Amino acid sequence: MAVRRYARLYRSASFSAKIMIVAGVAVCVTLVFLLLFSRFLTPYDPYEFTPDRLSPPSWNHIMGTDRLGRDTFSRVITGTYWSLTIAFVSVISSLAVGSFLGAVSGYMGGRVDTVLSLIMDAIWIFPTFVLALVVALVMGPGLINTAIAVAVVALPVFFRVIRSQTLAIRDQAFVEAERLINAKPLYIIRRHIAPFYVSSLIVLTSLRVARAILTVSGLGFLGLGIPPPIPEWGTELAFGRLEIASGAWWLSVFPGFFIFLSILGFNVLGEGLEEILRPVTVTNR
Amino acid sequence: MPLLEARNLEVRYQTPFGEVRAVDDASFDLEEGQALGIAGESGCGKTTTALSIMRLLPPAARMVSGEILLEGKDLLSMDDAAFRKEVRWKKVSTIFQGAMNALNPLLKVGYQVAEPIMFHEGVSRDEAFNRARNLLKTVGISESRADSYPFEFSGGMKQRVVIAMALACNPQIAIADEPTTALDVIVSRQIIDLLSELQKNRKLSLILITHDLSVIAQLCDKLVVMYGGKIVEASDIFAAYEDPKHPYTRALVGAFPSLMGTKRRASEIPGSPPGLINPPSGCRFHPRCPYVKEKCSFEEPKLRKLRESHSVACHFAEEIAS
Amino acid sequence: MLFILLTVIFFVMRILPGDPVTIMVGEKAPPEEMQRIRHFLGLDRPIEVQFYSFLGDMFTGNFGESLVTHRPVILELSSAYPATVELAVGATLMGVVIGIPLGLVTALKRGSVVDHSGRIFTFWTYSMPEFWLGTLLQIYFAVQFGMLPTSGRLPATMDLRTITGLMTVDSLLQRNLGAFVEAIRYLILPTVTLGLVTLMPQVSRIARASMLDQMREDYIITARAKGLPEKIVLYRHALRNALLPIVSIIGLSFSGLLGGTVLVETIFSFPGLGRLLVSGLLNRDFPVVQAIVFMFSIVVVAVNTMTDVLFAVLDPRVRY
After folding, report:
1. How many angstroms separate the most distant Cα atoms in chain B?
2. Euclidean distance between CA atoms B213 and B206, whole angstroms
3. Pick the CATH number of A2-48+59-277 from 3.30.465.10, 1.10.3720.10, 2.40.50.140, 3.40.50.2300
4. Could you tell me the CATH number of the domain that includes residue C277?
5. How far is C124 from chain B (nearest CA, A)?
6. Which of A232, B65, B164, B207 could join B175 via S-S bond, C-beta 3.0 to 4.6 A?
7. Taking CB atoms and an 8 Å limit, are C289 and A259 in contact across chains?
8. Contacting subunits of A (3+ beta carbon pairs below 8 A)
């Protein structure tokens, strides 16, 4: 029945929203597909050196090769797996932790709320990228640390949204009624407040994944993210830049393009979803 | 000749769900110095009618057909620039809900009243501000408050400001849309008295749009009742309250609790207002009408004259006893 | 707020897993070495002592010495920050000058081709990674056409006496028009990259949404009803109100802008705080990183405060 409701929302959405959703879904599905099947789609082994050094795009190597003869196309496809997975994992964990904290904070109020909100505000107000850099510095480069950095930075958004929704709903009559029957707070949160979150969270997740991809590749670009030889897009872009002087434009353009495309895809998806889900998030119906 | 004549107005809105027939074949007259009340539930088309007189319909709306004649001249066929310069505010002005957002929160009140004076009459800034202060005085706001911002006023005072603003260029007609709705009873009464007084002193013709019949009873000479985008009854004010003919009007009048006379339950009108994308067939009120007969469900009643100055759109108006 | 930020910075730096000393010297270093460095950095003192000393240092501007250059950090900062200031100001100007009109036009011509293309453009720039755009611009403009420079602030041959450190201002103060032109030339690509990607899309979106909200307000209908020319309705009535959320967003987006300077300066070898931060990070130059993070915090808080003040200037309701 929820599916039917969403279908109706889709049908009554504006034309621009429909395009956005379709485009966003198309891009994201393609990316996820690449993510899952990257192993089978790479014509060459991304780590293998070939004698074909620094060659421009050709039929053999669609996106050219780098200084060590590695096929750019294969590396970029493999990069999808890494960049996206980290982005997803970080955002999902951020979502879980941030939402939980937000719900707790909103529901309990008082000291807990004040402290948590203050911390989240501090993180929120700070330049996200710098914060991620600092975390990366302290913890050193590496896979998990990058994920943690990205997750920390995304926390405040989920926290705020869930907290404000909790606050709005907490005082409504039916929740009061439940409280009177002495139901446990967690139960109340889960059964009554949680369903309203779903729409906002879907939208937010998509948008944050886009941001996360940006952060992950940014960190990689600066050499503070996932270490080579893993072909993460940002790191690839950084190495590619070194070859610009020799005219090897393809080493920077293609990885960057994929970063751009994935960010764009998730942004478009998120915005499109927001447009059709707006009646749900606004009226909570 | 009546000052304002509206003939067969038809306005439709484009929405994602279909075309809404907001105003369907509405016609009415306004004589000079008269106060005309347009009553009805929310969404019945009364505000749309008012906006179309001023040619202020939102972009999603379009005027399908109709004429609006001011002193015999068709307002709808005038070109934009001429309409803006000669009719807006100079001949016809609007009084929206001051307690809400009819005043720009970032501009001083005195400026907002003086603004149309400066534009239409090309007088100096000082002169315009002087006149603005006088206008404020007329509506009961001390002149020194002209330098205040809207948020510094109470709801009732803001409504007075909006009225002062409407009078700035001495219009012939003022259209007031729910002027008292957001105000409490006492303040409401003050505003009504103010409007009444202004009407007499300035020979102002008034179109009062509201769902509140008690306000219309105090101010208006004529009443037009709208339902589902159509005019269902038009009469002078006494006939409307003493001998309403249309079932809807009767229900409206009956729904209003009275402090005097015998204690009785206020009656209510069951059901809800019709959606205007696919309005009910035949008479739009028939699903909720206590006197409904078979004919009502397939044949739309036309507005017809029962007596001089009393028209009804109901097949069985004569049979409905008082 | 500043205090909260400082506390958070302090704890983030100290409490997160990962020992900065180990990272600095590597895991195989002899324990005495690590102890020495730990003592040098004051990391072996009790935590409360460290915290107070940290606060004291921050406020007196004693950021210690760079572990790499052994110069006082404050010197490093002061030679770097003017560049970032120029870049940030330029990018903000760019974001505002392009973003606001774009947003307004798309709002007014809602649903038209102009609207759709404007929104697509905004979307596009919003999703664009600044380091990619910068790279593309470098490839295109500099390598291909040699028109615009890709790094630095002035040609190596040109010399300018530094008064404020701001190349544009200094060159004007010394009436050196050639230098002024060059300063601008070197600023163009970084500024465009930064402004177009970080500030412009946000401003444009809010401008559009805000303007659309305005058009629905009663007082706008009243203004039209008064017979005022459309231009006045738009500028004096709608725009003034629409500006309020826009100002808010500029303040809020500023921290994003600051984050962007890090990447943009790195790409264009622009000698500002961002690039200093990156080199500090790569070299594990703890004091430098700490100091720059601190500076950023101050700037962010300052900008937010300024935005609040500006808001009060524009909106009389806030003043009371």
Report:
1. 66
2. 16
3. 1.10.3720.10
4. 1.10.3720.10
5. 27
6. B207
7. no
8. B, C
